[in-house]
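Structural prep section.
Before we set up the soaks we want a predicted structure of the protein with D-xylose in place, mainly to decide which crystallisation condition to try first. Input record follows.
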Amino acid sequence: MSESVFWRVDKIRYEGPESDNPLSFRYYDKDRRVLGKRLEDHLRVAVCYWHSFNWTGFDVFGAGTFDRPWFRVSNQLEAAEMKLKAAFEFFEKLGAPFFTFHDRDIAPEGATLKESNANLDRIIDKVEVEMQRTGVRLLWGTANLFSHPRYMGGAATNPDPEIFAYAAGQVRKMLDVTHRLNGENYVLWGGREGYETLLNTDMKREADQLGRFLSLVADYKHKIGFKGTLLIEPKPKEPTKHQYDYDTASVYAFLQRYRLEREYAVNIEANHAILSGHSFQHEVAYAIQNGIFGSIDMNRGDYLLGWDTDQFPNDVQEIALVMYTILKGGGFTTGGMNFDAKLRRQSIDPEDLFHAHIGGMDTLARGLLAAEKMITDGRLDAIVQERYAGWKGELGERILSGKASLADLSDLVLEKGIEPKARSGRQEFIENLLARYV
Ligand code: XLS
Ligand code: CA
Ligand code: CA
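Run finished without errors. Recording the tokens verbatim:
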């Protein structure tokens, strides 16, 4: 018997929809060609470190429930090395092409920034070896600017500039690390960048501070020659009541205000989209339309709970619509589908981590295959084209090109006695059509 926590599981293989083996893929056939590209290259799946290897299963009411060997080791650096071995064994057995992590997920925080950086360097040497050994790549790196008590009042938006400087130090280091590991993106999630009450908050000043911080990050990225994409991850609430990065539209307005819209794109999380009162597809479509679509944090929420439950996705229709939107937007460039999702705290067996990811990957694959049908069939697109066809005519062209004034349009209607005819939006018909692809 090996001492590995995942010793009972072999490499997960594609066995097709008829397979009864719960530790196999039924749809995720990585080499299958979909619209001229390998399925794996469309989805660009990543496993996240924090939920899968750091979270002990604790919640606000109770202690950790997962018994992983590295939680039992008191020397933090030794624990980090053990966890690293297990994580790469998991990535390899699952066949995930990418992973993601925060600085503090992978190596322990020290007493000073200097000590933390040294801890990180020591572990990153080993990460590099594992990446070379397995071929697993880094989808994105990020700095944890929200767990340590120093950040309780924000990182970039903190009332204390020394905390801003500390956060800058952490991001600088993590950008260096991400660059060194050839990360494809770098994520900034403003966990504590928000506020509880205006009684103690200067909102205008905090926005300017955040704008400054993001400019500094972009400058540094260019200075070191990092070619990956900088991403901002919107989230409407949690941990604070008002989060500055509420949704994609707020982030886009913020970026424009600080002239950063060409430097940053968004990392859209499914669960965060829902919490902001939008559909997941809406958030993705909004980002694509405005040229700031970057990457996806894949998970789902619970419609009965108002918080961020980070569950694994299982709704094929939702994914199909999102994949359809992404494919029509040209697909991922540097982005991918990161499983920012965690087990339920009663799912304590190491095998549960495989079931969760297998189910998630199969759901993504089914969504992709449905989206492929939607695209090749072309009927959904034709319906929308047809609905707006009037705008391709002479009147539509005159309006949009600015050739017709408000008075011209009024005169036209009065003179010609125009009485437009109402047409059905046919939503139920279209929904029935959609059901046939899924
Ligand atoms: C938290 C966020 C976080 C980011 C990375 O809700 O999802 O995990 O993805 O800091
Ligand atoms: Ca996330
Ligand atoms: Ca989340």
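Observations: The radius of gyration is 24 Å.
Flagged for discussion at group meeting.
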